[in-house]
């Protein structure tokens, strides 16, 4: 009896003990899309929604073994990277990813609370070795500044210049996220071989831990389901806007996206 394969995506990222970002957030987004999520754990962290207390990075051999073992069994429709940590891990990812992989590269460099999650030499390797393999790179504005050296990025023209620089490094496409901007709306700009697409959503008056991870995971889920990037982008933007608008908020003042916001609305209705 033939079995219909389930769409599958894999996240290569760190474990976030608060479950608002990292591996845990990625898996929740994949599940919300009906995509079977696989994991390659690059690091463990001790953190909550407000701060990172510490992080411990896996060996390159561990990361490579996780990737190659998954590839023995699964046909993986999209790969998404988050926290990679150091050059050894990045080398393992570069060497182990299958040829032609659809790679959504979310360049996690510094946490929202200011904890460094990627060493300086690892950033150089990410730029030189991993960005050229990417289907799309999804930096926020501070990450785009660190990758391109363009600082500060303040205007739409600055964002477009940074996106062009990142594409010139070898990526097929770039989406610079506007969540760290100062306008009343958060505008994300996609730049690919066909040109530019800009999408805006309201800016909400609270910080949401893990929104960047969840957005990149939504892109990965869309691609695993067979969408092209131009189709995936607006749906992922709609998804993350809803997840932030209906964010799960805690007594501490912290908040995380709710990837199941649409399901909860159906239940309420």
UniProtKB/TrEMBL annotation:
Does the record bear Nucleotide-binding in its keywords?
yes
- Can you give the residue ranges of the Pyridoxamine kinase/Phosphomethylpyrimidine kinase domain? 16-253
- A Pfam family of the record is Phos_pyr_kin
Question: Would you tell me the Gene Ontology cellular component terms?
Answer: cytosol
Any one GO BP annotation for this protein: thiamine biosynthetic process
UniProt keyword annotations, A-Z:
ATP-binding, Kinase, Nucleotide-binding, Transferase
Q: In which domain of life is the source organism classified?
A: Archaea
User: Any idea which GO molecular function terms this record carries?
Assistant: ATP binding; hydroxymethylpyrimidine kinase activity; phosphomethylpyrimidine kinase activity
Q: Does the keyword Ribonucleoprotein apply?
A: no
**What PANTHER family has UniProt attached to this entry?**
HYDROXYMETHYLPYRIMIDINE_PHOSPHOMETHYLPYRIMIDINE KINASE THI20-RELATED (PTHR20858:SF17), PHOSPHOMETHYLPYRIMIDINE KINASE (PTHR20858)
The name under which this protein is listed is Phosphomethylpyrimidine kinase
Q: Which organism is it from?
A: Methanocalculus chunghsingensis
Q: What is the lineage of its organism?
A: Archaea, Methanobacteriati, Methanobacteriota, Stenosarchaea group, Methanomicrobia
